[in-house]
Amino acid sequence: MVAILRIFLLSSLVILTLNGCNSTPKVEKNGWVKIATKTANFKNEEDIINLNTVFSSHKYDAIKLTCIQGIVNIKDINVGYSDGKTQTLQTLGVLTTDSSTRPLILNTKEQKINKITLSYNSLGSTALNVAGMTKKAKIEIWARKPKETN
């Protein structure tokens, strides 16, 4: 019984440690942090990405999207702040593998982001995905910390 309890506790500790590493912000150059990753399906979609507390507790002054796989047509981005206000960013167009948007300046760097709503459609189809011709688009959302907080 003690051995089973010890294995359970050790396994729980390993899982919590790995989960903590996964949610730790990864800083790129110039204060950019990856705050979310989204896989787009082959249909018109709107997805709400609620940021976990590690990312929503920080202030950011800009965001950008990077397509790391596939092709996606971004229609709009709606940023929800912790005070309940929202900001709609301009339509961005098509992103292909290894392409990014320009930095999209947020209304204020004094607010914290708690959610991002993406409206998009992924180009391709399920049949082409099965045939290996197109893959579902994967999008990374990056946020930039204001210079005075880096």
What does this structure look like?
By secondary structure, the chain is an alpha+beta fold. Helix content is 21%, strand content 42%. It has 3 helices and 10 strands. Strands 1, 3, 7, 8 and 10 form a 5-stranded antiparallel β-sheet that branches.
The total count of helices amounts to: 3
Strand content: 35-45%
Helix percent band: 10-25%
Number of strands: 10
Radius of gyration: 18 Å
Helices and strands, in order, run as HEEHEEEEEEEHE
Mean pLDDT: 78
Overall 3D form: globular
Please describe the structure with a list of short key phrases separated by commas or semicolons.
21% helix; five-stranded antiparallel β-sheet; alpha+beta; 150 residues; globular; 10 strands
Strand-helix topology:
Layout: H1 2-23, E1 32-39, E2 44-50, H2 53-56, E3 62-69, E4 71-81, E5 86-89, E6 93-96, E7 99-100, E8 104-105, E9 113-122, H3 126-130, E10 138-144
Antiparallel strand pairs: 1-10, 2-9, 3-7, 3-8, 3-10, 4-5, 4-6, 4-9
Short summary of the structure?
The chain is an alpha+beta fold. The chain has helices spanning 2-23, 53-56, 126-130, and strands at 32-39, 44-50, 62-69, 71-81, 86-89, 93-96, 99-100, 104-105, 113-122, 138-144.
